[in-house]
Every structure is written in structure tokens, then in C-alpha cells.
Amino acid sequence: MAYEEYKSAERGGNLILEGRERLSISGVTDVLSFDEHEILADTTLGTLMTTGEDLHVERLSLEAGELVITGKVDSMEYVDDRRQKGSFWSKLF
Length: 93
Hints:
Blueprint: H1 2-10, E1 15-18, E2 22-26, E3 28-34, E4 38-43, E5 46-61, E6 66-79, H2 82-85, H3 88-92
Antiparallel strand pairs: 1-2, 2-6, 3-4, 4-5, 5-6
């Protein structure tokens, strides 16, 4: 099992968006949070934030590193830890 996890972590990540209604993601290691407007997923390339309307996790397989999201996809963005560490002003002072 540990070998399989290591192998899946080495794989790159791909995003396939079909008509803004179906998003297939590979290289997924964890889903951090999800609701109908935002899904946060850890991938081998970083944390991916997907936003939209009526978003649903259609399929999730962490063993295979695959996630399929359906709904109206508005944006996909790789986010870093800066959002969690504080605002712009808190960094200045």
C-alpha cells in the first residue's frame, strides 16, 4: 500500500474541463473542503481551488488520484499558503 501511495504522489496533475460543466482532475491527494460554490483539493502540483455554481463531487478516488467535478465551473486556481497566513496588513506589521 505504501508503494502505491508513493507511486500516485509521483504522478503529475492534469485538468480537463469539458464545456465548463465537467472537470476531471488527476494527481489529487486529498479534498480539503467542498460545497456547491467552492472545492479545495490538494494535488501533486499544489492546492487547487475550483469555484462555480452547483458544484458536485461526482467521483473521487484518492487511490487513483482522480477527482471529477460537475456543475458550472467559473474558475480554477492554484493557491498557496499566503491566504492562510494572514492579510496584507498583518504581514506589514
